[in-house]
Design brief:
The chain is of the alpha/beta class. The chain has two domains: 142 residues, ornithine cyclodeaminase, domain 1 (2-Layer Sandwich); 188 residues, Rossmann fold. It is built from eleven helices and 16 strands. α1 crosses α11, α3 crosses α4 and α3 crosses α11. The longest helix is centred in the middle third of the chain and has 20 residues. It is globular. The model has no long low-confidence stretch (mean pLDDT 94).
Length: 340
């Protein structure tokens, strides 16, 4: 009997996977990782000489609580990251997520990885913000104007009653255009700022979602008690946060190993002797599982180093496929099924 393959385009993924649905899936996946029910190696990154970007391969495996192979799933994300893509109007992240049956290895779904990455990254930041930001933090500052900046604004605005959204980027005109495009899409009003320092002033929640190789955020700009979702620096050679911020903050990870190996914010600050492994207080899954604590005082600065995990891609893709499958045969069917 030939199997069927569900194919979800970028628009299909967006139709099937809301930020709230994805955040729920991320909580479960992070707890599974903390409990040993999710497995994955560090991503393998290849940077060919002369290429416009790089390619990363991210395999993973997620079992159920009962550990039954028939209910388990393999995931494989293959993603190309090309920094020059925004200049031609497309996302820097391009690739696919493949899901396969845990008992037979048969492929069951193929999804647009750009859309999965966009939604799950913002959804994990929603979870981190719930766990680490002060309850009274309602002003959001976003440094960046790209795909992840927009996703974070929409996800955090839908998850939290914000009172202000401030946007800053390298190009003030683009920041103004971005802020204007939020009209009618967010509950809180978006406002462009000329500088990152202006955007961050007074903000209890900060998102850095840039492609910068040098810090875009400095400690003396931050309010006491601020929470930062550091999203953009996913290579050990680039950073968004200055050393002073990293040295003072309580650090949190989706996975410790990823931060120690892949986070330029951490690796470069560690090379200066400013931070060490013990400064990573907990993984998000450990906090969710109750085996570790998050913020301990209203005044401390917290940093979530978002590296993006293969298990998160698997869980987000699986949730999108569940929603899409429920629509099969209806007038609002999401996705396409192919004999494979």
């Amino acid at each position: 009997m030939r199997s069927e393959l569900l194919v979800l385009s970028a628009s299909d993924v967006h139709a099937a996977l809301s930020y709230a649905e994805c955040a729920e899936a991320m909580r479960a996946a992070l707890v599974a990782l903390a409990n040993g029910q999710g497995q994955m190696p560090l991503r393998t990154v290849t940077r060919p000489v002369g290429a416009a970007g790089l390619v990363a391969v991210m395999p993973s495996y997620l079992s159920t609580a009962a550990g039954e192979p028939a209910d388990a799933t393999y995931g494989l994300k293959a993603i190309c990251i090309t920094p020059s893509n925004p200049a031609i109007g497309i996302d820097t992240h391009q690739g696919v997520v493949l899901l396969s049956k845990g008992d037979t290895g048969e492929p069951v779904a193929l999804l647009n990885a750009s859309a999965v990455t966009e939604i799950r990254t913002a959804a994990v930041s929603v979870v981190a913000t719930e766990l680490l930001a002060r309850p009274d933090a309602t002003e959001l500052a976003v440094i960046g104007t790209g795909v992840q900046a927009r996703a974070h604004v929409l996800a955090l605005d839908s998850a939290r009653q914000l009172t202000a959204i401030r946007i800053a980027g390298r190009d003030p005109a683009r920041a103004a255009e971005f802020a204007g495009s939020l009209a009618g899409q967010t509950r809180a009003a978006g406002r462009a700022c000329d500088t990152a320092r202006e955007a961050v002033a007074g903000a209890g929640i900060v998102v850095t979602a840039t492609s910068s190789a040098a810090p875009v955020l400095q400690r003396d700009w931050l309010e006491q008690g601020a929470h930062i979702n550091a999203v953009g620096a996913c290579l050990p050679t680039v950073r968004e946060l200055d050393t002073a911020t990293m040295a003072e903050a309580a650090l949190f990870a989706d996975r410790r190993e990823s931060v120690l190996t892949e986070s330029g914010d951490y690796v470069l600050a560690a090379a200066e002797g400013a931070v060490g492994p013990d400064q990573i207080r907990a993984e998000l899954g450990e906090i969710l599982a109750g085996s570790a604590v998050g913020r301990t005082t209203p005044e401390e600065i917290t940093v979530f180093e978002s590296l993006g995990l293969a298990i998160e891609d698997l869980a987000a893709a699986a949730r999108a496929c569940t929603v899409a499958t429920a629509t099969r045969g209806s007038a609002g069917q999401i996705g396409t099924w192919l004999r494979f």
